[in-house]
C-alpha cells in the first residue's frame, strides 16, 4: 500500500488496456482519455514539463472487456479513490510551487 492507500491494481494503464483489447499500441486510448471521449476513466493534463496522468479504474474496464458493455453510470471511480487522487495532485502542486519559488 502506498502513501495514498491506492491499491496497486486499482487502476489500469493505457498499455494494459490496449493489450486487453488486442491493439498494437495505446495511442488511440491515450488520446481518447485526454480528450475526455473514452467512456471509462479520464486523463489529467501535465504540469510544466510533466506527463499526462491516466486514471482508469481496472474493475469497470475489465467488465467492459468481459461483457462488451460500458458501465451505464459515469461514476466509475469510487469517491474514496477520487479523494486519494485529489490528495496526491494537491501534494504534487505544492511541490511544484516550492520548486518554482526556489528556482
Strand content: 5-15%
- Spans with pLDDT under 50 lasting ≥5 residues? none
How many beta strands in the DSSP annotation?
Answer: 2
Helix content: 40-55%
**Overall spatial form:** globular
Order of helices and strands: HHEEHH
Q: Distance N terminus to C terminus?
A: 33 Å
The number of distinct structural domains comes to: 1
Task: Count up the helices.
Answer: 4
Radius of gyration from CA coordinates: 15 Å
- The strand line-up of the biggest sheet is 1-2
Structural class: mainly alpha
Query: Biggest sheet: strands, sense, closure?
Result: 2 strands, antiparallel
Q: What's the pLDDT, averaged over the residues?
A: 78
Features of the shown structure:
103 residues; 4 helices; globular; single chain; two-stranded antiparallel sheet; mainly alpha
Structural notes for this entry:
- The protein is mainly alpha-helical and 103 residues long.
- The chain has one domain (14-102).
- It is 50% helix and 6% strand.
- It is built from four helices and two strands; from the N terminus they run H-H-E-E-H-H.
- The longest helix is centred in the C-terminal third of the chain and has 24 residues, at 79-102.
- The chain is globular and about 45 Å long.
